[in-house]
Amino acid sequence: MFAKSVYINRRAALVSKLGDAKGILLFLGNSEAAVNYPGNQYRFRQDSNFNYFFGLTDPDLAAIIDLESGQEVIFGNDVDIDDIIWMGPQPLLKDKAEKVGVTATEKLSQLGDYVSKALQGGRKVHFLPPYRYHNMIQLNAMLGIPFDKMKSKASVEFIKAVVALRLIKEDCEVAEIEKACNIGYKMHYTAMKMMKLGMVEQELVGVMEGISISEGLMPSFPIILSQNGETLHNHSHHQILTEGRLVVIDAGAETNSNYTSDFTRTLPASGKFTQQQKEIYNIVAAANNLAIDIARPGKTYTEVHLASAKVLAQGLKDLGLLKGDTEEIVAAGAHALFMPHGLGHNMGMDVHDMEDLGENYVGYDDTIKRSAQFGLGSLRMGKMLEKGHVVTVEPGIYFIPALIEQRKREGTNAQFVNFEKLKDYYTFGGIRLEDDILITDDGCRLLGEKRLPISVEEVEKEMAK
Predict the structure, then answer these.
(1) pLDDT, mean of residues 339-360
(2) Domain total for the chain?
(3) pLDDT value of position 80
């Protein structure tokens, strides 16, 4: 939890952003979710927006901000004797609320009455798109909105105000993200040092997850660690590390205050790259470094993505896998056969920051529109970069046989792709290299005290020790 003033200032800024909007803002915190019976629950994670504005990370909380009167109320329950027996004494709700600058509290059962009174008075109830079924049920009960209409009925002005505030990171947030990056570094570096032929992928996943829990809350998302790196989000960890294969490790940490990191490195299972692997790896590393060199305020992340894509296209051209003019290759999206995702995404309290509010609200705006082109359309962040943005930089090259065969049959971008030569890469897998950056006054900087080894030489040196 940050200082009380942080939460007071955030709520005041939110109300200011909403200008002349009327009604009440409804914030629903998260509740416990059962694994297989009510008493056995998943690790609790508070809703990021509730945490951002109210700072309390307990389950079963809600809050209201009245846009006209300025009243702020936190709804929740104090523990009873049964709770004390199992959990021990707990602070009173009013004492928790006081720590974040809220003086009014009510029992959670009063939330429905408060909302009902607002509706009866003809007032608008602003809410954010729900992603948990428990909160969908609450919204349905209070507002009568059908479940399939909840995202479309969410308050656009509320969404835009939240996005505008959360996208620009405060110094206290950057400090927490740095902590998450340092934990993420340790997770990756430990896996790099431990990796050896004959291990099962799951062994490394377990070690990495253990580090994230011992030093923070948990991994920031389910760890991706696979020798089938051509599958972008491969969560299967059953394979034995085998000579000649590459291991894509995409993982990050979440701190106890819910700030995150997200790194990817691709390692040779044996500790040594083959010549073919080096050639592809160096292209991806060059694209990663170029993006970091040019990311700065006043440049859109779409521009950074496309500049990075040109590095990939030129490198693949040099290997004879693509042909033609590099600018035309990228304009046609032919390079997306090898990188069907975007260069990166926003990161903060969520590893894909605020995407529950809608990717297009977070990564795009009225001037920067999302492309419909394959590959470029998957870029989650295209906006003009500003000081305080935190984004990931994660170019990759993947050889996906099913996609290659489909494009070959359809003749898609046939003038740019050497399909015949690609047969030599069908068992290659994929390479992705990802770092986290903070946009500064005149450029950007890497987050975390140390950068994970990035060059072929650095990786092989560290794995050989």
Answers:
(1) 97
(2) 2
(3) 86
